[in-house]
Prior knowledge:
- This protein is of the alpha+beta class.
- It has 6 helices and 10 strands; from the N terminus they run E-H-E-E-H-H-E-E-E-E-E-H-E-E-H-H.
- The protein has a 5-stranded antiparallel beta sheet with strand order 2-3-1-4-5. A 5-stranded antiparallel beta sheet has the order 8-7-6-9-10.
Amino acid sequence: MADKETEYKFKIDVFTPKTIPMLRLGEYMAELAKLLANTTSVHFDRLEESSCVLVSKIEWEAAPKVRSRIESIKRSEAADDATEAVARLNVMLREDNAVGKLLQDDNGKLAEILHFPGREIPKPEQIGPFSEQATIKAQLYRIGGRDDTAHAQLMDSAGRQWNGKLTKEQAAKMAAAGGEGLYKWFLVNGSARWLRTEENEWKLVDFHINDFKLLQDASLEEDIAALRGIKGNQWGDVADPSGAIKESRSDDDEVH
Length: 256
């Protein structure tokens, strides 16, 4: 029943249909589809001139659900996938130096129902770089180097990669640990240098390895005992490190 279909228009102020790159258009359409949800009943209809306007048609039976979803976004009560889509659209708009609007026909007049500030969002201040002691539990998957400084490439249980600098002597010991160090788990203590970017992301600039210990299959308490045996970290001064770790971490973060 086409006469009962609802139209939503997403307007991007810096583009026209002739200037927006096709790949970027597809990215905007994908995030807009996530925002509106009800994927089987939401359809791309056309691009309109006057900036770049993506027109979506909502089948009549899905229109109340989409309307309710948009209202929940306006009240800041939306589901995570809708909130993430809004955030991603704003990031894309800021990258394109653009502002966006979601419009709906209201008795023959287009009404703005959601505003996407995009380029109007202030960028967070860059912080750092600064250094701090870091102890990680990670798996060694590559080690070596041709100059005086070797590199150990490690991955923690959350999938983060750490490129640690160490001496050739340390690298040889680490590679030989346990007979064959590759793909073994280590507790590694060192100095990490961090930078918070304008995109509000923490970036590891440098990681200098001071000490390390090969881990066997061990409990948390045994890991803590190994941590306390590494010189230069704070865990020797913590009365109840097991309780402190459990209290301060609710995820799978392996950085201490």
